[in-house]
Structures are given as C-alpha cells and as structure tokens.
Amino acid sequence: MNSANQRLNNLKQSIEQATELAGRAAHSVTLLAVSKAQKINHIAELHAAGQTLFGENYLSEALPKIAALKDLNLEWHFIGPIQSNKTRDIASHFDWVQSLDRLKIAKRLNDQRPSSLPPLQVTLQVNLFSEETKSGTTEQALFELAKAVDAMPNLKLRGLMSIPPAQTECAKQKQQFEAIYTVFKQLQATYPDIDTLSMGMSGDMNQAIASGSTMVRVGTALFGERPADWKKHINE
Ligand SMILES: *Cc1c(COP(=O)(O)O)cnc(C)c1O
After folding, report:
1. Whose CA is nearest to atom 6 of ligand 1?
2. What is the mean pLDDT of residues 118-147?
C-alpha cells in the first residue's frame, strides 16, 4: 500500500470511529480533501486511492489544477474568500462553493453559472463568533441570504459552512460547534432539503463530528504540513 493510500485509509478510519463514538450512522460524514498548496501529482495519487472531493481556497492556484486533472472527474469545492472579480471563473469551474457569505456574490454566481452545468451547490459561511478577520455572514443576516439563494435557479442551497476560532479547551470548542449545529437545525426547519454542515478540520474534526458535522475539510492530516512559504507564489 502506498502512502497516499495509507493516509487516506487512516483518516477515513478516524472519521468512522468518531462517527460511531457519537452514536451516528456509519458513513454519515463526508471527507473533503483540502488540496491548497498541494501538487497535482499528490491530488492524482489521492484520487487513485479513492478520494473524489477536493477543496481549494485560491482561484489562481486552483484553475491550473482543475484543468490538469479534468479527466478524473473530481468534484471541486471553493472554500476561500470570494472577490467579485473572481465569480465568473468560480461559477464556471467549481461544483460547490462553500464560502458564500453575501448577496452580491450570490447574484453574480447565479448569473454567471453556465447553463450547460447543473446548479452550483452552495453552503453559506456563517461567522457566529464575531471574528472580524474571518469571512462569514452573521446569524442575523443568514436567514435573509438563505431566502435569496433558495430562489436562485442556478444555485442549490445545501447547508452551512463554518470555521470557528481554534480553542485549546475542549469544552469551549464543543460549545462553538454546538452553536453552529443549532443554527444549522434552524435553517433546516425552513429548508428541509439541506443536508450539509461543513465544519471540522485536521485539528478539531473529532469534536466537530461529535457535534453533528456532515463534512470535514481536511488538509494537513491528509497531505502533511503545507510548506511555510506556499502562499508566496499565489496571486490572489
Ligand atoms: C486550509 C483549510 C482547511 C484545512 O485545514 P487543515 O488544518 O490543513 O486540515 C479547511 N477549511 C478551510 C476553509 C481551509 O482554508
């Protein structure tokens, strides 16, 4: 077994263990492999090992990868902050957008999604903890945004994404994930079709799964540490 295979299998096992420990159904948590800073051949190796969902944060980094790997039929998720001038390429080259947090961007993605493609699958990014450095809509604005997105024919509302602040204290971490889960359930009461709560990364995925996450976004635990200077080459 090669190492991509081994890392993927180990991670999937940890996800299933956390799922079982939480008393949840087997395979109810999906793995998004976060491939920012990772080379094309490493993505191809993971695909050969059975992974099909990949997430990228920066358009300039993602486009060449998507083009190079187009024959593999990967499912690409955009998970980074979205600038208006990037929406056309995001709408044309991605299957999902997880970081949607404002109406102006939603309208552009809806207008620019090519009609030859199925609707763009979206999760709304919420920021419940008033962190000014992070993207995400407030809880107050969330329901209005959801209503608008739900009415857009070229976008399909799938749920929520959140990146709560890192906490060293387990109880604090749990409290944050549970607060996000509560908002997800409230949204689901209005939109019963939504099925995705994207929360949890390498460092906190077990707690996120215990609190109801349905999708974990994992980079480091799957590919290893990102090179310290990888952002130097990125032209946002
Ligand atoms: C980088 C990133 C991840 C993955 O983080 P790791 O700690 O490497 O697992 C997940 N979600 C988002 C939005 C990211 O930017």
Report:
1. 219
2. 92
> Between β-strands 30-34 and 215-218, what pairing exists: parallel, antiparallel or unpaired?
parallel
Which tens digit of pLDDT belongs to each residue from 65-77? 999 999 999 999 9
Ligand 1 contacts (CB < 6 A) are 34, 36, 57, 79, 163, 201-203, 217-221
* Better pLDDT: 27 or 2: 27
Could you give the CA distance from residue 35 to residue 43 in angstroms, rounded to a whole number?
7
Q: Which atom of ligand 1 is nearest to the CA of 36?
A: 1
Closest by CA to 136, choosing from 148, 121, 123, is 123
Which of the four pLDDT bands, split at 50, 70 and 90, describes residue 122? very high
CB 104 within 8 A of CB 77: no
CA of 32 to the centre of ligand 1 (A): 10
Residue 56 forms beta bridges with which residues? 78
- In this structure, are residues 76 and 93 in contact, taking their beta carbons and an 8 Å threshold? yes
Query: How does residue 227 score in pLDDT terms, banded at 50, 70 and 90?
Result: confident
Residue of 92, 151, 156 lying closest to 119 (CA atoms): 156
The single-letter DSSP state of residue 26 is T
